Amino acid sequence: MQKKLTLFLAVIKIVAADETKKECPELTSKENFEPDKYFTGSWHVTHIMINGQKLEAKDLCCMEFKSEKLPNNTIREILVHYYPNKADESKFVYIENHISEESLKEIKGRYIAQYRAVDKE
């Protein structure tokens, strides 16, 4: 029991010491992107970059992406956004994306998606 408590406190100390980064690193697009590997299962995101804007701690958003390939050559993606710093009624946002597989081939590192807000996952 004491080992578990010590480990728990060590993890809490490390997490508390980690300062939230306010800028996303400059990243290059993935070479030889394989959509079948990316758009499968669940992915989790903690930081995003929007047109190079600086992020502040209040903008923190945790996201989960769940993807599936549909028979009509599109990828359906359900996104759950969690905003820990917002009021209770707006902490969770649910979005459904439909991504054209063709757009994945056309533009390196980007894709075109049609999206809409939905009530739940």
From TrEMBL:
<dbReference type="GO" id="GO:0070026">
    <property type="term" value="F:nitric oxide binding"/>
</dbReference>
<protein>
    <submittedName>
        <fullName>Putative nitrophorin</fullName>
    </submittedName>
</protein>
<dbReference type="Pfam" id="PF02087">
    <property type="entry name" value="Nitrophorin"/>
</dbReference>
<feature type="domain" description="Nitrophorin">
    <location>
        <begin position="28"/>
        <end position="121"/>
    </location>
</feature>
<keyword id="KW-0732">Signal</keyword>
<feature type="signal peptide">
    <location>
        <begin position="1"/>
        <end position="17"/>
    </location>
</feature>
<dbReference type="InterPro" id="IPR012674">
    <property type="entry name" value="Calycin"/>
</dbReference>
<dbReference type="GO" id="GO:0051381">
    <property type="term" value="F:histamine binding"/>
</dbReference>
<dbReference type="InterPro" id="IPR002351">
    <property type="entry name" value="Nitrophorin_domain"/>
</dbReference>
